[in-house]
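Q: Given only this backbone (82 positions), what sequence would you predict?
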């Protein structure tokens, strides 16, 4: 299970919304965080979120053990099983 944690603040809502639209991806809340879960990879397209670069590059709060960020650039954020 791949889990990406994103702080639940208005600036990051679009990240969670776009992630929730992906097949087999579930977005829950754990405390003050969105927990974006998938059995495989979590992939979020930056342009689909409408986030500016500063928000985009600061949205990651963490990943679960056994997950790792394999792409975090101006195009996408991908978190995959380790």
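A: Predicted residues:
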């Amino acid at each position: 299970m791949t889990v990406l944690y994103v702080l639940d603040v208005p600036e990051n809502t679009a990240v969670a919304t776009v992630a929730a639209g992906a097949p087999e991806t579930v977005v829950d809340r754990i405390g003050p965080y969105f927990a974006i879960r998938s059995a495989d990879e979590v992939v979020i397209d930056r342009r689909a979120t409408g986030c500016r670069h500063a928000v985009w590059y600061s949205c990651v709060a963490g990943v679960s053990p056994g997950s790792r960020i394999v792409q975090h650039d101006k195009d996408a954020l991908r978190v995959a099983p380790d």
